[in-house]
């Protein structure tokens, strides 16, 4: 176990007071020593990477300007032209140093109080200041986090990454790093496979620091710019040296996260396409089943015969009535549901700029409507056959009821047909649905007139009617279904408008949020009360205290007037967001394919895509065999097929 008393420090064999000039001078000297060693190592990483031998002394190696020019050419990725490569006279050295300093200034780097003579004469303090300026310009200046830059941005990044680790409290670039735990936490946060943080001896400051240095250099390519003693055996670890070293962690892990983003982008697109594929298969399966069931029912009716008795006729009537109240209603619901499912698939495809879905022949909505009309005709014939057996009613009441019921059903069907056929931009669809909604109250008034006519028939013992197949219960059910369909359609379009604008969320996230919202919207009002909102958030793994939930709910009520789908989805945007564009997908595939015009199964697996996403992509993308008989998948052609040409993909 290590121990270090920051209030006591010893150099040269004696104890120094923290307030004495000697102590301050010793602290500055130690800081210069650490900076010289750290900065020299940092510069050597640049030199060695470009085939130059390393430096051993900043004062000695920079004095003739040759190494300084080499460094500027490396950092600036350009040539500084001719210079004295073997200067012997002071004037030649001055020319070299001056050329390098002029280049630094031309790149917008401001140098203060340093000239060629300071570097030639080995003024270490000014040399260290110049190198620190270069480090800021070429290593730290491009670090940004939430609008902050350089030191503040790097510090915020460290704080966010180490926040889950209770033993780590990063407040600066000095004492916060003296026990090695902050470095170990950064490594574990990004690469938990490299270090078991929970098993670290939190009191072993030297061991933890040494372990972090070793893992960073061997597995992450981060050179060890510091020594263990630079962090653990000093009262004030040098801030500039620590920043220079920690910046290496930022750049190493940022590159890793960019690679993961490429794979995640392809994964999200595969999830979207798989979702569309599942919805299309569900639509086709349900339409086939509905058409088969209706055909079987027509065949059953055609095969039935009457025994000629009133009891038999009443039995046929009861069976027929049972069909209308159970089987037919389920078909009415299913017919509306598959039409809604078809519309939802088309809306989703248009929302993400994908090609319109065309069902196979015989499975289109007009095919379903044709089969439904055929069923209604067969149903009418069946009704007439039954009514003919038990007709004991007054003709005028029968006609009166039939006229009202048929007219109501016709008006109802017209509205239903118009509802199903609504298309176009979402805002225009919303206007059309709301216009249909204004026509529903008139239908309710008409339904009361139909009910009055039915009561008159019942009072006259009129139990059958050759002129209609509808009852008030049928029409009321379909009216309620129509009202619900309109309400659901309004909610769906409204939610789709919100979803369309949420380009910073993935399709999978939007589907999850929408299904969660619908599930907890118990009264189907397209709004959530406070308890429903809390339950919905909890189902997504988001839990707040009662006090915080009150504040969130009150704020949403103030901003939106109610917890609508838009309010709910905007609340979640702060937690999870991503977006995918066609151009990004093409770049993502190219990254996985290593710029080849095709990808192989090995490419997909190396990209660490989930197995189900890999299997789907192999099935969906067109392929051809190479000389070894292995499939090569043409992602360019596949993306052209699934995206509209006008998207410029």
From TrEMBL:
Signal peptide start-end: none
PROSITE patterns assigned: ACTININ_1, ACTININ_2, CH, EF_HAND_1, EF_HAND_2
Classification via Pfam families: CH (PF00307), EFhand_Ca_insen (PF08726)
Residues of the Calponin-homology (CH) domain: 33-139, 148-254
Coiled-coil blocks: 376-407
Organism: Trametes coccinea (strain BRFM310)
SUPFAM superfamilies, per database record: Calponin-homology domain, CH-domain (SSF47576), EF-hand (SSF47473), Spectrin repeat (SSF46966)
TM region(s), chain numbering: none
PANTHER family, A to Z: SPECTRIN/FILAMIN RELATED CYTOSKELETAL PROTEIN
EF-hand domain sequence ranges: 508-543
Species lineage: Eukaryota, Fungi, Dikarya, Basidiomycota, Agaricomycotina
InterPro entries (alphabetical): Actinin_actin-bd_CS, CH_dom, CH_dom_sf, EF-hand-dom_pair, EF-hand_Ca_insen, EF_Hand_1_Ca_BS, EF_hand_dom
A GO MF label: calcium ion binding
Family listed: Belongs to the alpha-actinin family.
Gene3D superfamilies named among the record's database cross-references: 1.20.58.60, Calponin-like domain (1.10.418.10), EF-hand (1.10.238.10)
Protein name (Swiss-Prot/TrEMBL): Actinin-like protein
């Amino acid at each position: 176990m290590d121990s270090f008393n920051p209030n006591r420090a010893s150099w040269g064999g004696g104890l120094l007071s923290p307030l004495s000039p000697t102590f301050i001078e010793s602290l500055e000297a130690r800081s210069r020593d650490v900076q010289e060693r750290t900065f020299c190592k940092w510069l050597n990483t640049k030199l060695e990477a470009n085939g130059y031998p390393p430096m051993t002394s900043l004062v000695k190696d920079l004095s003739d300007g040759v190494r300084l020019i080499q460094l500027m050419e490396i950092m600036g990725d350009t040539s500084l032209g001719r210079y004295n490569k073997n200067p012997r006279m002071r004037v030649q050295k001055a020319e070299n140093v001056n050329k390098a300093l002029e280049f630094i200034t031309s790149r917008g780097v401001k140098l203060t109080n340093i000239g060629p003579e300071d570097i030639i004469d080995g003024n270490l303090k000014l040399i260290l200041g110049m190198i620190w300026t270069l480090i800021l310009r070429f290593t730290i200046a491009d670090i940004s986090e939430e609008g902050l830059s350089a030191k503040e941005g790097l510090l915020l990044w460290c704080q966010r990454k180490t926040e889950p680790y209770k033993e780590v409290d990063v407040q600066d670039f000095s004492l916060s790093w003296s026990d090695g735990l902050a470095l170990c936490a950064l490594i574990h946060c990004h690469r938990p496979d490299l270090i078991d943080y929970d098993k670290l001896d939190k009191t072993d400051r030297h061991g933890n620091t040494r372990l972090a240095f070793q893992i960073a250099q061997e597995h992450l390519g981060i050179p060890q710019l510091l020594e263990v003693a630079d962090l653990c055996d000093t009262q004030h670890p040098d801030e500039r040296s620590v920043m220079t070293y920690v910046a290496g962690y930022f750049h190493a892990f940022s590159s890793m996260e960019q690679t993961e983003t490429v794979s995640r982008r392809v994964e999200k697109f595969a999830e979207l396409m798989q979702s569309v594929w599942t919805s299309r298969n569900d639509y086709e399966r349900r339409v086939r089943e509905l058409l088969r069931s209706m055909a079987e029912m027509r065949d059953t009716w055609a095969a039935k015969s009457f025994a000629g008795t009133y009891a038999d006729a009443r039995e046929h009537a009861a069976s027929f009535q049972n069909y209308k109240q159970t089987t037919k209603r389920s078909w009415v619901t299913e017919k509306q549901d598959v039409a809604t499912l078809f519309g939802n698939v088309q809306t989703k495809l248009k929302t993400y700029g994908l090609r319109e879905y065309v069902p196979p022949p015989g499975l289109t909505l007009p095919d379903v409507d044709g089969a439904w009309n055929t069923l209604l005709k067969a149903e009418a014939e069946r009704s007439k056959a039954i009514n003919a057996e038990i007709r004991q009613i007054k003709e005028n009441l029968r006609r009166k009821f039939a006229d009202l019921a048929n007219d109501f059903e016709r008006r109802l069907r017209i509205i239903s047909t118009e509802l199903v056929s609504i298309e176009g931009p979402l805002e225009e669809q919303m206007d059309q649905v709301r216009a249909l909604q204004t026509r529903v109250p008139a239908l309710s008034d008409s339904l009361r007139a139909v009910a009055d006519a039915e009561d008159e028939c019942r009072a006259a013992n009129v139990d059958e009617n050759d002129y209609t197949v509808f009852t008030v219960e049928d029409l009321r059910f379909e009216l309620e279904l129509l009202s619900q369909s309109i309400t659901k359609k309004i909610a769906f379009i409204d939610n789709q408008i919100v979803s369309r604008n949420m380009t910073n969320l993935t399709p999978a996230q939007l589907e999850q949020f929408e299904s969660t919202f619908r599930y907890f919207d118990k009264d189907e009002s397209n709004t959530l009360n406070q308890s429903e909102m809390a339950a919905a958030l909890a189902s997504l793994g988001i839990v707040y205290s009662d006090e915080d939930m009150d504040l969130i709910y009150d704020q949403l009520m103030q901003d939106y007037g109610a917890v609508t789908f838009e309010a709910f989805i905007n609340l979640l945007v702060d937690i999870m967001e991503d977006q995918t564009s066609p151009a990004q997908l093409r770049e993502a595939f190219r990254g996985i394919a290593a710029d080849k015009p095709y990808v192989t199964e090995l490419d997909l697996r190396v990209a660490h895509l989930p197995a189900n996403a890999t299997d789907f992509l192999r099935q969906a993308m067109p392929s051809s065999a190479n000389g070894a008989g292995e499939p090569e998948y043409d992602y360019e052609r596949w993306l052209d097929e699934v995206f509209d040409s006008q998207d410029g993909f």
